[in-house]
Amino acid sequence: MLSERQLRLYKNLSFTHSRTAQSMRSAAPLLLLFILALSDAAECQSFPEFKRKHILPTQFKTKDIRAWRKHLLKNKLCERTETQSFIKSSEENIKQICNGSGEKKNNYTKSTDLFEVYIVKSSKGIEPKCIVENCTSGKYNVIVKCEMYLPVHYHGQYIDMNTSPQPCF
Ligand SMILES: *[C@@H]1O[C@H](CO)[C@@H](O)[C@H](O)[C@H]1NC(C)=O
Ligand SMILES: *[C@@H]1O[C@H](CO)[C@@H](O)[C@H](O)[C@H]1NC(C)=O
Ligand SMILES: *[C@@H]1O[C@H](CO)[C@@H](O)[C@H](O)[C@H]1NC(C)=O
């Protein structure tokens, strides 16, 4: 499925394209592939996307399964992947991972602080529209990719050795 943004990009480009060279229509599929690759990278790798996919609002009621369903649906995350990770902390603390508080490891940065991370398994349903199949939380070091001092990609998490994840509700 193409996102609205990808479609818009494609339409704009193919419009310019058809005005300049009708005979080059056969190049369109190639062009589409190129745009998909570009916009995909752009979508996964920006702080707003990171925020949508991995940061919970600070007042989020993590013990309320209905709040999870609502959050997943509202942010179009219910069936994004089977298992998803969410950090509950202030945006400022999370940004700091990439701006001084984290530890660089190869292409990634590992937080030195522990964050409360929720690991949620969900799938699409009918009623409710989003089924939360499992939810656990614990204190983890998170591993992210940083760009321009901002987290843009969530890579994974390590749990603190002395703890184990607990059910959310
Ligand atoms: C780091 O990123 C570079 C460029 O994207 C890539 O060539 C390299 O394999 C990556 N290294 C690791 C350890 O993932
Ligand atoms: C939920 O996830 C935890 C951690 O992965 C796992 O230990 C547990 O068995 C799961 N529970 C269910 C009901 O799937
Ligand atoms: C990084 O930290 C510096 C110093 O606290 C701050 O001025 C800057 O705005 C921060 N950058 C980002 C992207 O948060």
UniProtKB/TrEMBL annotation:
Pfam families: RnaseA (PF00074). Residues 1-44 form the signal peptide. The keyword Ion transport does not apply. Keywords: Signal. The keyword Ribonucleoprotein does not apply. It comes from the Eukaryota. Residues 43-158 form the Ribonuclease A-domain domain. Gene3D superfamilies: Ribonuclease A-like domain. This is Ribonuclease A-domain domain-containing protein. It comes from Onychostoma macrolepis. The lineage of its organism: Eukaryota, Metazoa, Chordata, Craniata, Vertebrata.
